[in-house]
Write a structure and sequence with these properties.
Blueprint lengths: L1 E9 L5 E10 L4 E5 L6 H9 L6 E6 L2 E2 L8 H5 L2 E5 L10 H10 L5 H14 L15 H13 L5 E5 L7 H16 L3 E5 L3 H7 L2 E6 L2 E6 L9
Parallel strand pairs: 3-8, 3-9, 6-7, 7-8
Antiparallel strand pairs: 1-2, 1-4, 4-5, 9-10
Helix pairs in contact: 3-4, 3-5, 4-5, 5-6
Length: about 230
């Protein structure tokens, strides 16, 4: 479970990114976070990842209050989350297999675990045949599938997707969303920040809408609600 309890984030220049935000996300939910540019979506994502800390209020993930974590405790928090970005962020000199296995290596997985798990997740995202390819040899959709495999390889309880379809054409974006939906059905909680109106309107998942740092809508089967 993820809980935001009266969370505010004020930057040193005085700008308020979030103002008294409260919500909770149950295990296994699929939640879209939407809103205009500058609304506070990115700040919310960064607070979840502990890239930033709240000025006030509490962020609680699986019973752990994130605000109070020491620097050496943050990696343990991140082991339980997967993150997918708009720009893929793959390592260009590593193969598909090596990009995914690297995520296991940095959390101390054994070679035996890596040999067992990496082929499994590559199969899940439909890239078993690309294991020896490098990112430059892949299409944008394939690169995003590698990023998904990397995010999933450590069996996280939840997945953060920050504009994961932003650099993809509509057909490829649809394929990625079908994959995310399948991953969610397997029990992984998904939180996705997006401007993709068509996707949000089609999928009818929970929608949390943020404007000017405040939640203005929280709907169980919501729509995007903005013109792009």
């Amino acid at each position: 479970m993820i809980i935001f309890s009266n969370v505010s984030k004020v930057y040193e220049n005085g700008s308020t990114a979030l103002n008294g935000v409260s919500f909770f996300i149950e295990r296994g939910e699929f939640v879209f976070v939407v809103g205009p540019s500058g609304a506070g979506k990115s700040t919310l994502i960064k607070l979840l990842m502990h890239e930033e800390t709240a000025t006030s209020g509490e962020v609680i993930i699986d019973g752990v209050t994130v605000n109070g974590l020491k620097q050496n405790q943050i990696p343990y928090l991140r082991r339980n989350m997967g993150v997918v970005f708009q720009d893929f962020r793959l390592l260009p000199k590593k193969t598909v297999y090596e990009n995914v296995s690297f995520a296991m290596e940095i959390v101390g997985a054994s070679r035996r675990e890596i040999r067992r798990q990496v082929p499994t997740v590559l199969s899940l995202v439909g890239l078993s045949h690309k294991a020896k390819s490098f990112p430059s040899q892949l299409s944008g959709g394939e690169q995003q599938r590698v990023a998904l495999a990397r995010a999933l390889v450590n069996n996280p309880s939840f997945l953060i997707a920050d504009e994961p379809t932003g650099n993809l054409n509509p057909k490829t974006a649809q394929e990625i969303m079908e994959l995310l939906n399948d991953i969610n059905k397997r029990g992984t909680t998904i939180i996705m920040a997006t401007h993709a109106k068509d996707i949000v309107d089609q999928m009818k998942k929970r929608v949390i809408a943020i404007e000017d740092g405040v939640i203005v809508r929280d709907e169980a089967r919501g729509v995007y609600g903005y013109e792009n």
